[in-house]
Each structure stands twice: as structure tokens, then as C-alpha cells.
Amino acid sequence: MTIKEIKVKSALVKSRLPSVDYVVNCYVGCGFACSYCYASFMGRMVGRSVDEWGSYVYAKVNTPDLLKKELEKFKNKGKGKKILFSSVTDPFQAAESRYRLTQKCLSVLADFGFEGNVSILTKSPGVLKVVSLLKSIRNLQVGITVTAADDKISRYFEKFAPSASSRIKTLELLNRQGINTYAFVGPLLPHYADEVGNLESVFKSIYKAGTRDVYVEHINLSLYIKKRMINELKDTDKKFWDKFYLSQNNDYQKYLNKIILRLVKKYNLNLLYPDVIVHNRIKNKNIKRYFF
Ligand code: SF4
């Protein structure tokens, strides 16, 4: 793993994500190295290829100082604005233990008295280390990405990320501390998503952890992601490959959506985005060509 320090020009970046005004990414790169990660394109900012994703982290060391200055431009202490940590990196990956950039940025928001909404999205129990800081920020919600309830499944495409069980536990501990939480169920991993028992165990474990708000997302298989996934899948049973073709199919996604909506209702959860999030759909006949 290569770790470097860099300086950047801004901390708050305008977002194109629904209902998010700004994103703060204190790192370029992510040591969790998930093979489906859509953020792997970010390497081009630092001269790295998509294939190198997971092998480098650039710490944007001046982010907290920049954030402090940039917050001054907000009227009414940022009321009505929403900031997300983070959209293209994990804010509590291992590098955070060394640089504490996310932690420092959260302190800046707390000191400023930010009155907008703050959302944190991570796979890491590292967020538990800053619970008292989280409590000092108004309107904050912590999201944990949950792709499976079974550690063996989560190890498949997320070899270096915290285990599925530790993420569910993190949700539970945050809830016990009175932190407002959500679960990000995504991407729906094609090799297990249509097995109802697997999906059911995900939603059941979220419910048991005490979290009620969820986002659900279909997998994004844009060309650059597809290439990395093919590498990952090349030694696996062909039946997995078929699931990947299907994952981009409109009818199949609708079929999965029905299962998800039933489970959301069964476990009394709130789907925060009005539907399961989808990135791109292609027609049936093009599926194999699309994937290869
Ligand atoms: S944790 Fe998130 S940002 Fe990091 S590699 Fe995995 S999907 Fe990408």
C-alpha cells in the first residue's frame, strides 16, 4: 500500500447525488479495495489506473483547514444544506487512524455549529472511536454499508473491508449510543442477491441492530468496473457469471425490487430513496455483449 500526502484546493465539492449538496472526501483512494467500487475512476486525479485501486491512498492533509474557511460562506450556519462524508472513499479506512482527517473535519463542523445535515457513510467500525464527536453535531446520521449478513459472502468482493458481521455490530453499537443511523444495502451482489434467504438475512440483521432507515442499490457495471469484476470472477463457477449478466437486466431488477420492497415492509424499514437505486439498464439481448 502506497500512502502519500497531498494538498488540495477545496474541501467541499458540489454533489450530483440526490439530496446531497456537498461531499467531503479526505482521501483519494481506499484501502478497502472493493472490487465493485465505482470510485476506482478517481485514480486519474493522481495519475493512477483503475487496476491500481486499493493499492494507494493519498491523504488530502489540508482538508480540515480548507473546510473551516469554506464553511464561512454558508448563511444561517448551513441550515438546509447536506454534507456527505464520503462519496468516493471510505472516511474511516485504516489511513484515518494515522491522519484523522475525517475526525478533524467533523470537529470543524461541530465548532462551527453547522445546522445543516451531515451524513457519514462507511464500512468501518472505526467510526465508533469518535462517538462523542458525532454526538456534538446536530442533524447527523451515520450510514453503514451492508452487502451481506454472512462474512463468507462479504469476503468475496470486499477482501480488505471490515467483515459483514462487524458492520452489523457497528450499527447496533451506534444505535445503543443514540446515534441516528441508516444502512446502505449496496451494491446488491449478483451471486447471492436473488436468493431470498440471503437478502432476508440482510434486512433482518439491520432490523435487529435497531436501524430503520435504508438505501438499496443495484450494482453499477460500467465498463471500467466490469473489467475489474471479470478479473475477480475468472476462476469462479460459470453460474456466478450468469447472475452478473442478469444483474443489469431491467426485468430482473424489477423482480429483485419486488423482493426488496416486501422485505422492507416485513421488517418495518424506511426506504429513504423512493426506489431501489439503479445506475444503468440494458436490454436483454445485449447483456452478454455488454458484460464481455
Ligand atoms: S469501501 Fe467504499 S470507497 Fe472503499 S473501496 Fe469499498 S466501495 Fe470503494
Question: What would you say this structure looks like, in words?
Answer:
The chain has helices at 63-71, 95-99, 101-112, 131-135, 151-157, 164-176, 190-193, 196-209, 223-233, 238-246, 250-266, 287-291, and strands spanning 2-6, 13-14, 22-23, 27-28, 56-60, 82-85, 117-122, 140-145, 181-188, 213-218, 270-271. With 292 residues, the chain is α/β, with parallel strands linked by helices. An eight-stranded mixed β-sheet has the order 2-3-6-7-8-9-10-11. A three-stranded mixed β-sheet has the order 1-5-4, with no helix packed on it. The longest helix is centred in the last third of the chain and has 17 residues, at 250-266.
SSE topology sketch:
Layout: E1 2-6, E2 13-14, E3 22-23, E4 27-28, E5 56-60, H1 63-71, E6 82-85, H2 95-99, H3 101-112, E7 117-122, H4 131-135, E8 140-145, H5 151-157, H6 164-176, E9 181-188, H7 190-193, H8 196-209, E10 213-218, H9 223-233, H10 238-246, H11 250-266, E11 270-271, H12 287-291
Parallel strand pairs: 1-5, 3-6, 6-7, 7-8, 8-9, 9-10, 10-11
Antiparallel strand pairs: 2-3, 4-5
Helix pairs in contact: 1-3, 6-8, 8-11
